[in-house]
Specification:
Structural class: mainly alpha
Number of strands: 0
Radius of gyration: 30 Å
Distance between the termini: 59 Å
Strand content: under 5%
Number of helices: 23
Shape: elongated
Helix content: over 70%
Length: 542
């Protein structure tokens, strides 16, 4: 019993190491990996090669699965491109098992030492991320060493060995169990690592190891399906990926006697043979799957049709699912940023359409603009809920600053939406009801002032996206200039009133209130600049 507990502890170390590795990669790369995936072209070969490179840089099957699913859900990549990418990623991900197969157990404490020094005693996000990655590798190798040392007792226990030999006689059942284990643990590395540790001391033989390798690969396909189930495109991707894995895994299990004969002919230790089998499995999957990407995607599209559009689609977030949290903070922040930019686009559209409605006296368009504020309010609630679910005790200063900046920009966009809905829409409806119009000069001044506010909104959106401090400073200068211009426009309006201009008298209150609320919108926009400049100071930007 104690031996099984020790082996379980070794598996737990591997699982913790893999999870910690994902978080370290998040800290090290931030949203770079997600941005890289968005720039992959339609070429299957390029997507395949990019998948290999991406997974070597970030050797975590769960991270790659979530990146692929969320990129498809965001509309930056279709299922065909993503399937080619994931086929390539499957090959790159074998690097972790190859590392485990090497005799690196002795260096695990050294990796832990250097990992702790970098993570605990440095403050820069990249150095802490590097320390976290090194530390996680130390945990994984320590887990393998623990399993190997405990497995020696299993190999010496006749009853346990007899039970293992009985299980080895049912390779399909063993593959199914491995698939379930990899799905539950969300890690093929831990599943295959357990077999490598047991097999290194003779507790498990090669036929059983091959069945586990096949099942573990299917388990990661199931994980991708669970992650991408909520939307049609990502579900198609996951099903296509799973079909390929199940097909190759089934052939592998059936061909185990022949494969064992071939692999045993190749010189090398048990660990190398299992790692090589894992790599070979995914190379075969690529050779079979890459030419079949289009037929598989066509078949899956037929099996999983899009839901019938029954009238106007229910509005909701495009890029986030507020009902679920991911343990990848950089993915969460990347998706929430895209959703915030979606909300900002709606707000800019509201202001633009309202201005058109005021020029054309279109009350129906004004009411439509007012209704769109409900969409902004919904996104505001969903994004805030999503972001606050991602907070955990490991949030460092950089991540916390990014999260706070997003929340502040979102809050300003929601405030602008309320100003448009509750103030500007009311003014435009009042103008339409009174059947009055501004003087020609008043119209030109208002239109020019509105154009400057819209320009500042665009600058703020770009500054938010790029974190460009030069744009933030430009926005601050524009704010002062616009405040001065607003005072001058009021004085000119009063001058027209003194001159007795009839149109100016009839629309005076509306004219002045429009200036007031446009100025309020510009103030909200300018707050983004304060947040960016403040965040830059915290990052050492001076």
């Amino acid at each position: 019993m104690s031996t099984l507990l020790i082996i379980g502890g070794g598996v737990a170390l591997i699982l913790f190491g893999v999870r910690y590795l994902r978080k370290g990669l998040d800290r090290l790369f931030g949203t770079v990996l997600g941005d890289l995936m968005q720039r992959i072209t339609a070429s299957r070969v390029r997507a395949f090669l990019s998948g290999i490179a991406l997974s070597i840089a970030a050797p975590s099957s769960t991270t790659v699965s979530m990146l692929a699913v969320q990129t498809v859900q965001a509309g930056h990549m279709n299922a065909r491109q993503a399937l080619a990418l994931m086929i390539g990623a499957d090959i790159g991900l074998t690097v972790m098992v190859l590392l485990i197969s090497m005799e690196v157990d002795q260096v695990a404490p050294v990796l832990v030492l250097f990992g702790v020094l970098l993570f605990q005693f440095t403050s820069a996000s990249r150095s802490r991320g590097t320390g976290q990655v090194v530390l996680s590798l130390g945990f994984i190798f320590m887990g393998i060493a623990t399993i190997k040392s405990a497995s020696a007792a299993v190999a010496g226990n006749a009853d346990m060995m007899q039970l293992i030999h009985i299980v080895e006689g049912y390779p399909m059942a063993l593959a199914v169990a491995a698939a379930i284990g990899a799905t539950v643990m969300q890690s093929s590395t831990a599943t295959i690592g357990l077999v490598i540790g047991l097999g290194a001391v003779g507790a498990v033989r090669l036929p059983a190891a091959l069945a586990v390798v096949a099942g573990a690969n299917v388990g990661i396909g199931v994980t991708t399906l669970l992650v991408g189930w909520s939307r049609v495109e990502s579900r198609r991707l996951a099903v296509g990926n799973l079909i390929l894995k199940v097909a190759v895994a089934s052939l592998t299990v059936v061909a185990i006697p022949w494969l064992v004969a071939v692999i045993e002919w190749v010189p090398g230790r048990f660990e190398y043979r299992v790692a090589g089998a894992h790599t070979g499995f995914n190379v075969v999957l690529a050779l079979v799957g890459l030419p079949l990407v289009n037929p598989i995607c066509d078949a899956v599209a037929y099996l999983i049709p899009r839901p019938v559009d029954r009238g106007r689609a229910r509005f909701g977030p495009r890029y986030i699912d507020s009902g679920s949290a991911t343990d990848s903070l950089s993915l969460a922040l990347g998706q929430s940023k895209r959703e915030i930019l979606h909300a900002a686009e709606i707000v800019r559209g509201m202001l633009g359409d309202l201005w058109k409605a005021m020029k054309t006296d279109d009350a129906r368009m004004v009411n439509d603009v007012s209704e769109r504020d409900d969409e902004v309010d919904l996104l505001d609630r969903e994004i805030k809920h999503y972001l606050t679910r991602q907070i955990d005790f490991q949030l460092d200063q950089s991540d916390a600053g990014e999260q706070m900046l997003q929340l502040r920009y979102l809050s300003e966009m929601e405030t602008i939406g309320d100003i448009i809905d509750k103030n500007l829409c009311e003014l435009v409806l009042k103008k339409i009801k009174l059947e009055t119009d501004f003087s020609a000069e008043g119209w030109r001044e208002l239109d020019d002032f509105y154009g400057r506010v819209v320009e500042n909104m665009l600058i703020a959106g770009t500054a938010f996206t790029t974190r460009d401090r030069l744009l933030a400073n430009q926005l601050m200068r524009h704010k002062e200039r616009l405040n001065q211009e607003e005072r001058e426009l009021r004085d000119r309006h009063f001058a027209r009133l003194n001159a007795g201009l009839n149109e100016s008298m009839e629309t005076s209150a509306i004219h002045l209130d429009l200036l007031t609320h446009l100025k309020r919108i510009n103030s909200c926009v300018s707050h983004v600049a304060y947040a960016i400049l403040e965040d830059g100071k915290h990052d050492g930007g001076g």
